[in-house]
Amino acid sequence: MTALPLSREAFEARLRQIGAERYHDRHPFHHRLHGGDCTPDEVRAWVVNRYYYQSRIPMKDAAFMSRVEDPALRRAWRSRIEDHDGADGREGGIARWLKLAEAVGLDPAYVASARGVMPATRFAVDAYVRFVREKTLLEAVASSLTELFAPRIHAERIEGLLRHYAFADDISMSYFRKRLDEAPKDVAFGLAWVLDHADTAEKQDAAAAALEFKTDVLWAQLDALWHGYVAPARIPPGAWRPGEGLRAQAA
């Protein structure tokens, strides 16, 4: 007997429950960061590695759009690339992240080179880009729904960093503040699209699995940071090491 799909409301609740149980705001590294317990070098390691994820988001979205035949969907999705890359003299999220890098004492050119990215970070992020490139459009869109849970973590991050770290100011926090404005639009569109198109139990299962995969990608990045830079620190070969890639004033 073929299973019946959940109602629209029940399926949305299922997706939101994934975030409640698996989103990376539950990771101990975030508690450490937001609570002011990270050392300057732990913050720098986070900035270096998270940049790789930020820089691949527009590449992931471009890969998605290359497979979309519906012009309306492409138009709706295009703003995501512009939000990160910038457009028409408007600064994007990648440039704002490099301002954070500079604020924590890193050379933005070094961070942008991605030379210090941990292998586990690179593997996790590249797997996400490949997932979006190769899976169904429904799974690709569903994997973006971690944005449902992002505004809360951005708000907590802004509050925690401003309270505990001297580098935190309006400029260095501009990436997170801007995402508070940008993310709700993306969330509303992506969620509605998934709820509209996951019209069978099989499709709902695939969409939920895609969202779980994305939470795994985010969690794996923080696991790598914890094992590489917290305690006991085991920095892998080729990854950023304290003292590398600093601005001249911070060296």
TrEMBL record:
What's the EC number here?
1.3.3.11
Single GO BP term? pyrroloquinoline quinone biosynthetic process
Q: Which UniProt keywords apply?
A: Oxidoreductase, PQQ biosynthesis
Q: Which Pfam families match?
A: TENA_THI-4
Q: Which GO terms describe its molecular function?
A: pyrroloquinoline-quinone synthase activity
Its UniProt pathway annotation is: Cofactor biosynthesis; pyrroloquinoline quinone biosynthesis
UniProt keyword annotation of Lipoprotein present: no
Q: Which domain of life is it from?
A: Bacteria
Q: Which family does it belong to?
A: Belongs to the PqqC family.
HAMAP family reported in the protein's UniProt record: PQQ_syn_PqqC
In terms of NCBIfam families, this protein maps to: PQQ_syn_pqqC
* Designated name of the protein: Pyrroloquinoline-quinone synthase
The protein's organism comes out as Thermohalobaculum xanthum
